[in-house]
Batch of 2 targets.
Target 1
Amino acid sequence: MIVCVAVVGHQNNPLYIQSFTEADDALKLHHIVHCSLDVVDERVNNPKKSGPLLNETFLGLLYPTENYKVYGYLTNTKVKFILVTTDLDVKDADVRNFFRRFHAAYVDAVSNPFHVPGKKITSRTFAERVSTIVKAFGLSSAG
Amino acid sequence: MANYLAQFQTIKSSRDHLVIAVEDVSDLWPTIKNGFEDRLPLKRASLNNKTRNPVSVENLPAEFILTTDARLRSRFPQEQSLFWFREPYATVILVTCEDLDEFKTILKPRLKLIVQNDEREWFIVFVSRAHPTNDQATKMAKKVYARLEVDFSSKKRERCCKYDIHGPEANFWEDLESKIVESIRNTLDKRVHFYEDEIRKLTEQRFMPIWNFCNFFILKESLAFIFEMAQLHEDALREYDELELCYLETANMTAKQRDFGGQDKGDDQAALLNPGNKPLTQIVQDDSFREFEFRQYLFACQSKLLFKLGRPYEVALRGYSFIISFSKTLAVYESILPFCMREVWVVTACSALIRATSSHYKDGSVSSEVEKEFYRLQGDLYSLCRIKFMRLAYLIGYGINIERSPVNSASLSMLPWPKPAIWPSLPPDASSEVLVKEKIILQASPRVKHFGIHRKQLPLEPSVLLREANRRRASLSAGNMFEIFDGRPGFVDGLGSDVSLKTSPSKKAPAAIMSRTNSSPGFESSIDRPMRLAEIYVAAEHALHNTISSPDLWKSFSSLEDFEEKYLELTKGAADNYHHSWWKRHGVVLDGEIAAVCFRHGNYDLAAKSYEKVCALYAGEGWHDLLAEVLPDLAECQKILDDQAGYLSSCVRLLSLEKGLFLTKERQAFQSEVVRLAHSEMKNPVPLDVSSLITFSGNSSPPLELCDGDPGTLSVTVWSDFPDDITLDSLNLTLMATNNADEGAKALKSSGAIILNPGRNTITLNLPPQKPGSYVLGVLTGQIGKLRFRSHGFSKVGPADSDDFMSYEKPTRPILKVSDPRPLVDLTASVSSALLINEPQWVGIIVRPIDYSLKGAVLHIDTGPGLKIEESYAIEMESFNHELQNTADIRKEDGAWEKDSSNNYHKNLEQLILRDDRIEFPEWASSMTSILWIPIRAISSELARGSSSVNPQKQSIVDGMRTIALKLEFGISCNQIFDRTIAVHFTNPFHVSTSVADKCNDGTLLLQVILQSQVNATLTIYDAWLDLQDGFAHIREDDGRPTLGFFPLIISPNTRGGILFSICTEKIVGDHMEARRESILNIKYGISGDRTIGAHPPVAGDSNRLGCDRRDLIFRSALSLQRPVLDPCLAVGFLPLPSSGLRVGQLVAIKWRIERLKDFEEIDTLQHHNDEVLYEVSANSVNWMIAGRKRGHVSLSPNQGSRIIISILCVPLVAGYVRPPQLGLPNIDKANISCNPAGPHLVCVLPPALSSSFCIPA
């Protein structure tokens, strides 16, 4: 189950964080997303390590922990997408696919002329679209 | 083969270096032993690794053992092949012989026998005992050695070397070492090859039923051991890696149910770095090993090799993933393992790994990237250890002391509870412990954050422990579970935390009551009763005590203090290591956890420092949600520490966070703190930056435009993000010139206290005069109580976006434009044509404001000499009609405007009083062009003079010019001054010129008086008369008035009219000559003109008189009449000058001829010498030099027709046209002299002829 998706701006500022847990514990997911930026930074600042990933927007698994997984995605404009999932056996292809769709939704959201670049995404349409994508991800991984 | 496992292990542990066998044929070893053993370990050995590539090994340890030694004897051949690694790698045969025969007969056969065993790598060391001084013996030894070489060395391989006991040759030791190494290399290759073959054979059988992992293991580990002995750790490591891979494959492959292991005492302590923890024989399970122990064993072997290779980083890297994967494996077997075995194992494994890797790690030995990575891994290990430790602590009831922070919640709430087959039940005699725990639970109250912030606490548990524990109790059915939740809504959703039970005071009471009833004796025996939380804690504690074998670890759980100590150690470890790595955020966040502990222990100083770091991290990247969690804690620390500045800034930061993060009540609490502090006595008042709270901008309207030097009022929009009204005791705003960076910012001050409402406020500030340029808003400063604050926050239109945290956008739009100095008003005279002199006249001054209001303007009037303001009359001011018309024409396209102006236009007329030479402008004149009529009189005492052809008069325009100096003070505070001096032209109404129109025979002269109108007005002459001078008289005996019917004579502007007077000459009698030399023309006239055009009737103060009666004006002009020459007596003629012309310096005779025209009969009596004439030559002495008498008498016969020539020699002095000398006859009246021909006015004088004497040759 995807518990959280986030869009983080190029200055590492949160642009959109949506948690999908029922409990009122969004803050811990904020923490997970925020800390995962360490890994993104490390990958971006260490071209040697991330050699093959240089031209790749999908950063792969950021965090191997026992209980959840954090995936990252970096757009050309240095906007990061972070995905936190409690599914421990997730296929990379699924995550890639998820991010591709998420990216498309993001691009549509920021193309809105009323959206101020660098500001939080408040579009309700975007939120709906994201939750649809998240739900679809759960189905495909279950299947 | 598995039976040999024990033996194998023994051998392996007893021997960890190579063996070199010494075959001591001639009993030499004791004498040379020391020399040989000194060479060990071998300094440098070139060996081949598994892939047959040469590898240089340094300090290869080895041991010389005599073949007769017990360790090398008595071995079964079968064992030999199995444990081949322990067999000698080289055999050194020590011989000596001093006699050739002996060599041939005894030694050689014996040696042959020894070396026939091809299995061994051997070489012979011939020891020469011959003393170097003993030539004979030396020679013999050489001979024998030569023989030996021939017999045993081949071309392929040197197998002999010679050792002199008395001083060995220089290269002997090298030779020996190389021979040893060569032997070792060959043996090693041979054995590796053998083992590889064996392993391959076994591998091929892997999928057969006879496959036995133990055999494979022995072979594989033997090979690894061989490599390890040869210091080829890399290869050894590879063998272990392969072994591990193979094990995992086979372990998963076989469906056979095996024991997992891990149930022995002490198994909870991870043995992942201790290969000798348990003998392998103990963990053999059929044909394989128990997974629990064996995987740890393999990892221990690997890490041992890695440490030998100096790669602690890799140990940590592998270790971390091993722990993770092994922990998963443990989870699979959790139900058969002791309670919380998995968590305990991870804790001990992490601790062991951290200890080992950090002790092996040397700073600077690896690249900085690896170093950072290493520290990151250490941090990860600490972190993992910390999480598991916290989980265990929670289970035994220390959860109350664990901060419910995002980081703890993230790691613990997603970590599942342990899943033992059966949750541990309460030991029979634990009721006192339960009571203690219960007390702790009841006493614990969640810490209420500062400012009364109350939040739902983050969960530390994946689900409710109470339910989870009871569910896992075998005896309890699911139905019973709900009994404990009865009437407690907090549990219905299943997501509430255990703590929620205690947080709300209303829920606390029934819980407590229920607990008491439940804990009454007698209930403990009841198995079916669900366990209470305290019981769960106690049960877990007991179970854990059984699980944990390490007294150190158990000590950490024994008391709250010990728990906290360990907790701090782990947290600090993680934080410090993360700080050394790339993962700064992890480090800082953990610092926050340390801060929480420090805070709880009253170490506020440290806590504040750490909290500040965390806040800076979150604030720097705009993570407001997280910041809102920490910032109140920081504020509380600062408050306790009495750090007013910090506390204030924290409050301000809290206020500037996103509004949704705090309740209005809480935000009001922040504000009241700010206000309270601001009004209190602060020790070190510091300016407070409220950029995020108070932002400002200009109005959206265009910038205020001011003219140079004008003050104004500036209206500024200020946004307040305070939740309540806030009173600013003062407020300053700086303006910065955009065009001039050097110019310091100018501050505008508000007059008094300002109350800012939440949201938008408009503030007006007085603006003193500014220099020209455009200005933008700079910084807002002010005071709240005693607190100075400043704000750089510039808001565009709306309130500052709180997530716009990094850029303070500079205001770019100017708020004020002060234009360069420009004319603001124009004062001009309304007419340029002349006004009547000596009469009160209106002089019009057009006052034209140029896009500027003249409100309150004051005009100072200063008249120049010869001009006087008629103060008896009021000054009139009226709107200037003509100008308006023009303006309307210009703005034709703007139809609306034109129409408006024409409709609303009223002609204003107002009389103003001049006071102290000042006039104040009326209101209506402030914006429109107006005309100011000033009654004025030019004074001239001179009489107008007429002109005639005889007496031409140059009229100078300056004569009638008068000036009025005007000074207009205007502007908002009369700051603008406009000076202008206006020239006004005054004139007489007429210019009079006369000429004699005709001369009648009777001596009557017709004097024509021509009147040229000088003014731009119609003049009407009502009467004119001439007062004649002496020598003239009117024909009739009146005053020479023309006939009455002639008048009125109207003269249009700038036209001429004429009047004829008939006069005659009259004899001048005696002294009257002096009395009247000029005639006066008197003209009574009227004027009808408009003041807007030019001259006009004089100002009449009394309007009644103006209408009914015209006031005739008198104009007088002096005329100078000359008597005509009527009876010439003498004629003077100027004789022509020589034709050659006049030249400077040349003498010339100028001649006049005087001729008597008639007799002087009449005047004989008057003249004494009537035959003599007095002459006088007058000449300008500058132009002429006159030689001869200038004045003298010449005799001239009184008879008519007599003539005489007067000749004067002159020298012209100046070239050019000059007036020639004049001849005058002083004694004779001019009227009696006729000049015929008339003398020239000017003569031409040429420059002097060039004189060669002046030419100086070059």
Note: Chain A has a mean pLDDT of 85.
Target 2
Amino acid sequence: MRIVRGFATTATAGILVAAGLCAGARWHMLKMSGRKDLTGVKSCQTCHGRPETLEELPWAKPRPHHASPGGLAVSPDGKRLYVALDDTDEVAEVDTGTRLVVRRSKVPGGPTGLALDPAGERLYVTCRSGDRVAALETATLKEVATAPVGTAPVGIAWIPSQGSGRLVVANSVSDDVTVLSATPLASLGHLTGGREPYAVAASPDGSKAMVVSRMAGLTRGDEVPAAEVTVVDPAAIRVVSRERLESGHLSEGICAVPGRPWALSPILKVRNLVPITHAAQGWVVSAGVAVCDLSKGSVVELPLDETNAYFADPSGIAVEPSGKRAFIVSAGANVVTVVDLARLSRWLETAGEDARRGAIDDLQLSPEYVVARVPTGLNPRQVALSPDGRTLWVAERLQDSVLALDTGTLQPIGRVVLGDGGGNDPIRRGERVFARASTTFQGQFSCRSCHPDGHVDGLAYDFDLDGVGRNIVDNRNLQGLAGTEPFKWTGTNPSLRVQCGPRFAKVLTRSDPFGEKDLDDLDAFIFSLPPSRTPSSGPWTDAQKRGREIFFATRTTDGREIPYGLRCSTCHRPPLYTDRLPADVGTKGPADDTGLFDTPHLLGVAASAPFLHDGRAATLEEIWTVYNPKDQHGITNTMNKIQLNDLIEYLKRL
Amino acid sequence: MTKKPVTVLACAAAALVLAGPLKARSGRPAAELPFPLIERFEHFGPEQGLPAWKVHCVLADKGKVWVGTTKGLAVLEGKTFNVIGPGQGLSHSVVTALAVDPATGDLWVGTLRGLNRISAGKVETFTQTSSGLPNNVVYSVAVGKDAVWVATAAGVGRRDARTGSWSLFDSTNTLMHEPWAYAVTLSPEKLYVGVWAGGIVEQDLARGTWKEYRDPDGEMELDLAPDDGPISDITSWATWEDGILWQASYSGVARYDGTRWKSYLEKKSPLVSNFVNFIAAKGRVAWICTDRGLTVTDGTSWATYKGAEGGGGTVEITRPGTPPERRRTATAMSNDFVLGASITENEVWLATSHGLTRGILARRIDQATAARKTGTQGASR
């Protein structure tokens, strides 16, 4: 790596200096990107400079906060709607008659998910950035208890159980599920979930909790990725079953169906190894709903899309108390899809095994059970039904409002206004661009479809117009991206404007490119995303401290000097842990055109498995135990297992 | 999973040799043993659905019996064996160790190529290349309150239950004489590691400090000064239960109550063989698995089960101050080479080199003598 890299760097620097950043710079940019149309490159610093401190970066600076609705809960009498506002650290109480906010309560830590006890006296709130659950007394909307849970809790459900009932919480970063007693509020145990447990609901009989994971589990090669519905018995504090949502992905909601042994969960099916340019032919990303029959342990995935109309990023789901209809919001399409569950059941009963197995691929199927599409405001993410089932509340996240729909007429009956929508904030506007699917051909997917919260989806993709199976690349994390230019694994895009510009439309969205203003806003949003959270927190451990010494070592563990180019900190240079230069670490595969890949930053790296340019390393360990046989990715083969573990503990801390 | 129905082979007659109150040879009623006797044995092999004859380890837990064999992990539920092997995601077919996490019900499975966690049917693997596991050869697993511990051919690993972080302990950072660890066992306060040629090392879990127990006479084959420490530096297994640490070696057994060591040898006690593969403890009673049978003892009373020529078996009972009493039994273990055991209130499951054996106890084990501890110990080869 170092020879290639060192030569390129030295030669380029020499040319640039000699040529005064004119001819040399153009030559270098042409060589690296193959393009002559790059604009906005003012100096070497544009691609290869680095901030001296993280405080200089956009994500580290103060930004506007918005009353973005997250979790919703309706009181048992239907008179109150509770709304979690994670960005402002508040919970709002709404009079459902007037649709006015009557109270707001500060709940520090990013309130996200809500669950009420059956009497409506206690509101339980997951605090995603605070790693806790808070209990609010609804009479006063004051916090009366708190309990720590796993890392980044999102979904929560109240399950009737012994004593006062139990709470089940999905912890999205620590990949586990916490079971708590409701009164007193206390953790009883932690269970292993799927990858990124996200939403929780009570099972049809009310005795279990169903937890759906947002990300598909890690796969190797051409294995089919699958998300998971984890069925938890909160009384026994045990996982009783794990339903596999084959090829399911980005599942952000789950709901039981009264009268049927079903759990419904919206999913995306991503054909990630189909060349993404095939978006122009449709069918690269499908929105669907998984029907888990818990009595049989079977799962059937059905499309919500139609042949020429897609309903991207299905997220929240609610089912009428009668069990007749399900309401599913598509966050990328701004639509509520209404599903007739009796018709769906009839189709399931009459369809053969092959038809059920291939249902998700049949874009002509949805008229069998989809009975209505209702437009909403921007980015509907969560839904809640009134206890009588007559009103559907839809959280319109990116316009700071909650829509009220009459479920009889399917007409809007009003809106709860929570904030000003944030239209003057470029970050908010950029998030709208990021979340809207209308930018892609027929609205098949949004940026968020593959980058939930700006993070990764854990999949590798066949991107460029270079033939099937060539240059497969792992999805890269957009969190903590600011200051890490250039972009792409090949490092050929010097800015996000280039990355997301006309070429993006050609190889990915297969539609009109983003406009100039959208690109500005998209820049603002993506660069506002801080690095990913990892479960590692608290005081530094001894292992992390030892690992830090290894990371910055100038001598191998057996005493030899490490050449400058092979030290971890040379390429992964703080504060971003990247020098923003391409490097050859010996990972060029038979399907790769080059062995030179952009040096990724390492902030929050532990949360972004898999690793290396094509996602071949499922764990950080494999980067060195499997894919560094010739010490081209640092001199690691002299390390013993304790030293390697220490290094990894340090990386998990970044 | 593959399924195969079980038809239990053994013991139609179930000749209850030991039924009724036992009498000593003097005619006086015999003192009741501090442990129940096995009244009959049943056998399970490939015909009943086991994937292989050779059984390395067994673990009975809440109605299920997990069986580690040379050809995968079998689980007996009701009358059916289901088999989990590499085809179902297990990292290797040779299963060497089993332990259940009492907090979650997850099963940890050690193999000759990595560690596995089975949770509600999902198999997750940890190998030395994909995780911080010290070495792929896993001999023993123990689950504590906040971590799972493994003994491997290259040291001891600790995986934090919440963070997933691994800590490694071997001869470079502990008092371990060498990294080859055969057993890990936990008390509420301490970790004990059975080291192949390094006796036993102990970690104070709160302080992280280490202490070493070595055989003071240093002799492998002899115990020159009885009761002076571990019976040998070669530890083949170690089990802590109810305040007692039991050390197994190929030179006998040692018992440590936190203050005193006590040695048991084939020639100086009713122990059936010095070649000890495994010890399962329930309360203060040890079930000692050897190459020539099973010996049960609390250190004072003894019972040894062996096969007998011509079929059936024998049980030899030794009470303090009385001569041994040998009886024929209609049934016996599948094989006298016993590699593992798991004890429940009313039965004992035995892993042998030629099949799985279920021993039905003559009475329930007194709950009051059952374990008082926070962690679970692994069952191993």
Note: The two ends of chain B are 23 Å apart (CA to CA).
